[in-house]
Design a protein that fits this description.
EC number: 1.8.5.1
GO molecular function, one term: transferase activity
Number of domains: 2
Structural class: alpha+beta
Largest sheet: 4 strands, mixed
Number of strands: 4
Number of helices: 10
Shape: globular
Bound molecules: glutathione
Low-confidence stretches: 9-30
CATH class of the largest domain: Mainly Alpha
Keywords: Detoxification, Oxidoreductase, Transferase
Strand order of the largest sheet: 2-1-3-4
Domain GST C-terminal: 129-265
Family: Belongs to the GST superfamily. DHAR family.
Distance between the termini: 37 Å
Strand content: 5-15%
Radius of gyration: 19 Å
Mean pLDDT: 87
Amino acid sequence: RPAPPSPFLFARPAMRQRDLACHATADATTAPAPASTPDLTFYMKGSPEGKMLDCPFAHFAQLVLAHKGAPYTLVPTSPCTKPDWLLNDHEGKLPCLVTEDRATGARTVTTDSMAIAKYIDAELFPDVCPLAGAGYEEALQAVSPFFGAMAGFVKNNDPALDPEKEKALQEALDAVERRLQAQTGPYLCGETLTLADLSLVPKLYHAVIALRRFKNLDIYPFFLPRSEGLYVGESAEQLAARVRAAQSRPRLEEYMQAQFESKEFLDEQCFCAWEIVAQGWGKARGD
Ligand SMILES: N[C@@H](CCC(=O)N[C@@H](CS)C(=O)NCC(=O)O)C(=O)O
């Protein structure tokens, strides 16, 4: 599947080129899926019309599928289109991965993005691009305050509380920067892409959009022609300030650039347009 055009515009020359494939010898796009792979169906947050909506947790599991080169059927699911088996037996939880073995009819249902990611990695495709590299759980721990801090700040509607919410977020982002600076390679665990990266990257994408849209805060400066609606009326000085602010965490900035540009991130089955992400956070804020 050809990737859609990148929504990101880079205002300065490409940085160090890094090999984004998880393993030089096992490019997920060329490695054939094992013959015994069951049919995969992925249910995630969707509109009643069946359009995919914003969910960084679903995006995580989809990135794992993309890195494995695994074909799957995507079923965007709204509260009114949830199947009975999902509601009755799995508390209606999304995202949800269903595997079905055509030969035996055996079926597994997995909910929770991390459980889904681990299942895909360890049970379905253990030989393609292994993602549970040493230290990934510790890396997850190190960056874990970020998402809650970001969501807390974005959802806060009381201006008096904004400074403390923003401080918590900035500290959480500093922790991500420190983690990256402590590595010799481009990922949270050094040279090896792991589940920790694939979990973090969609959350960073949501943060870039929601912080710009609702809090006038930029953590990533090079955000595209297609999201120009986020920067309407911005002056040259504001642009310069935005770039300076975002560049205060150089490793994080470099990390986001590399990850946001990867073909897996831009895979059309999992990429969610910024407008939909902004809309989702607007709803979460009660706007
Ligand atoms: N901890 C869960 C969180 C999943 C979650 O919160 N999903 C939300 C959207 S971000 C969702 O799908 N909501 C729609 C629904 O439940 O109907 C996971 O990692 O899977």
